[in-house]
UniProtKB/TrEMBL annotation:
<keyword id="KW-1133">Transmembrane helix</keyword>
<keyword id="KW-0433">Leucine-rich repeat</keyword>
<dbReference type="InterPro" id="IPR053038">
    <property type="entry name" value="RLP_Defense"/>
</dbReference>
<dbReference type="GO" id="GO:0009791">
    <property type="term" value="P:post-embryonic development"/>
</dbReference>
<dbReference type="InterPro" id="IPR003591">
    <property type="entry name" value="Leu-rich_rpt_typical-subtyp"/>
</dbReference>
<keyword id="KW-0677">Repeat</keyword>
<keyword id="KW-0732">Signal</keyword>
<keyword id="KW-0812">Transmembrane</keyword>
<dbReference type="InterPro" id="IPR055414">
    <property type="entry name" value="LRR_R13L4/SHOC2-like"/>
</dbReference>
<feature type="domain" description="Disease resistance R13L4/SHOC-2-like LRR">
    <location>
        <begin position="56"/>
        <end position="157"/>
    </location>
</feature>
<feature type="domain" description="Disease resistance R13L4/SHOC-2-like LRR">
    <location>
        <begin position="213"/>
        <end position="394"/>
    </location>
</feature>
<keyword id="KW-0472">Membrane</keyword>
<dbReference type="InterPro" id="IPR032675">
    <property type="entry name" value="LRR_dom_sf"/>
</dbReference>
<keyword id="KW-0325">Glycoprotein</keyword>
<protein>
    <recommendedName>
        <fullName>Disease resistance R13L4/SHOC-2-like LRR domain-containing protein</fullName>
    </recommendedName>
</protein>
<dbReference type="InterPro" id="IPR001611">
    <property type="entry name" value="Leu-rich_rpt"/>
</dbReference>
<dbReference type="Pfam" id="PF00560">
    <property type="entry name" value="LRR_1"/>
</dbReference>
Length: 482
């Protein structure tokens, strides 16, 4: 139907036409907007029975330009979805006039400036996605007026300041994602009022102080990401109350103290990452109660003692990383119960004794790192039966010959042991040196035999240099090639 001058929605057509011009040539060339048909028949536009525009769904449509303030004239608009485009400029304060709006998705653009305080006037808003933009300034306190909001995502921007306590009013919120900004200060205690919250992501900011104990009130929480901040003090025991939690990441902070035993109540956990903190004490038997765990990361702390035998209860565990601690004693044979494990990272500790034969049961193991410990004895032949792509056994006290099948390995480090004899034939054959500049070689000696392995041999499949030596200093230039 052609447009008539008397149509009640003439103003609406003007606004939509303005959007078409604002959104750039690439957009205009790909849509049938500005045709002589009524705008309610145009692609990506939905109208109600009265012919008023209720939806603009324009994600990933090569849109450029700005969001004009005139868009506020679409008074019946409920869904404004313009994500994954190239919008620039600011979010106009007139956005607050879209009183019927329930979904506002402007993610993955290049919008900048402050988030306007008028956004607090969108009291029917259920979903607000502003992530992956260049918004700056602080979070407006008016966000606290959005009592119907269930999903708030403003991650990966340049937001500064602190978390406004008014966010505690958002009791319908199930997802709060503010990671990768420049937020700081302490977490307000009002965070505990978000009783519907299922996912809390505030990683990669500058938050400091203690993790508030009120976080234990978030009993519906399934994912908690606090990593890469500056949190201090010890882990709150109240974390143990969040028994639906399956993803807990607090790595790269300044957390001190011991692991609270209350963490053993988190029986739904599938991923626990506490690496790169200042945690100390021993790893306790309650860790064996976390039987849903598939990934356990505890490296770069100050843990002491031995690995608890109860870790053998974690039958779904795929990754165990306790590297860079001060763990000692021999490996418990129960580690052999971890039939699903693919990566076992025990390097840079003080483990002693021989490798238990029970590790042969780890048929899916592809990544074994036990370097920089005090393991002794001969290297068991079963190591060669595993389908390993990574094997680090350097800087131990292994003796005997090295007769492991290394075919298929991409990362092999075996130096700084007490091995005797020569290299396996396949290493000498498959990884022989090609002519390279002197600095591209690392020399190692074994029983008086000079061994030079090029870091960039044409046939070399290792992602790191193969090292096989007894105390020879690394990065020594080679005098001769093989």
């Amino acid at each position: 139907m052609a447009l008539q001058a008397s149509d009640f929605n003439l103003n609406q057509r003007y606004i939509v036409a303005l959007l078409a011009f604002e959104f750039g040539d690439l957009f205009k060339s790909n849509v049938d907007w500005l045709s002589n048909m009524a705008e309610c028949s145009w692609d990506w536009i939905t109208c109600n029975d009265q012919g008023k525009v209720t939806t603009l769904e324009l994600a990933s449509e090569n849109i450029t330009g700005t969001l004009p303030p005139e868009i506020s004239g679409l008074e019946s608009l409920e869904y404004l979805i313009v994500g994954d485009n190239s919008l620039v400029g600011t979010l106009p304060p007139e956005i607050g006039e879209l009183k019927e709006l329930t979904e506002l998705k402007l993610y993955d653009n290049m919008l900048s400036g402050a988030i306007p305080s008028t956004i607090g006037e969108l009291t029917k808003l259920d979903i607000l996605w502003l992530n992956y933009n260049e918004f700056s300034s602080t979070l407006p306190t008016e966000l606290g007026a959005l009592r119907e909001l269930s999903d708030l995502r403003i991650y990966t921007n340049n937001i500064t300041g602190t978390l406004p306590s008014e966010l505690g009013y958002l009791t319908s919120l199930t997802i709060l994602s503010l990671g990768k900004n420049q937020l700081g200060g302490i977490i307000p205690s009002e965070i505990g009022d978000l009783v519907s919250l299922e996912k809390l992501y505030i990683e990669t900011n500058g938050f400091e102080g203690a993790i508030p104990s009120n976080i234990g009130k978030l009993t519906k929480l399934k994912a908690l990401h606090l990593y890469e901040n500056e949190f201090t003090s010890s882990l709150p025991t109240e974390l143990g109350k969040i028994q639906e939690l399956n993803d807990l990441r607090i790595f790269s902070n300044i957390i001190t103290g011991t692991l609270p035993s209350e963490l053993g109540q988190l029986v739904s956990l599938t991923l626990l990452s506490l690496s790169s903190n200042q945690l100390n004490g021993t790893l306790s038997s309650w860790m064996g109660d976390l039987t849903s765990l598939t990934e356990l990361y505890l490296p770069s702390n100050q843990f002491t003692g031995s690995l608890p035998t109860e870790l053998g209860n974690l039958l779904d565990l795929a990754i165990l990383d306790v590297s860079h601690n001060q763990l000692a004693s021999s490996l418990p044979t129960e580690v052999g119960n971890l039939s699903e494990v693919t990566s076992l990272r025990l390097h840079d500790n003080q483990f002693t004794g021989s490798l238990p034969d029970e590790l042969l049961s780890l048929k899916g193991l592809t990544d074994l790192r036990i370097s920089h410990n005090q393991f002794t004895g001969t290297l068991p032949s079963w190591v060669g039966y595993l389908d390993l792509s990574v094997l680090w056994i350097n800087n131990n006290q292994f003796t005997g010959t090295f007769e492991i099948d290394t075919s298929g390995m991409k990362d092999l480090c075996v130096d700084q042991n007490n091995f005797t004899g020569g290299l396996p034939l396949e290493i000498e054959t498959d990884y022989s040196c090609r002519p390279f500049p002197e600095e591209d070689y690392i020399c190692a000696s074994d029983s008086g035999i000079k061994l030079c392995i090029a870091t960039e041999c044409y046939s070399l499949e290792f992602s790191y240099v193969l090292r096989y030596a007894n105390g020879t200093e690394e990065n020594t230039p080679c005098e001769d090639s093989l």
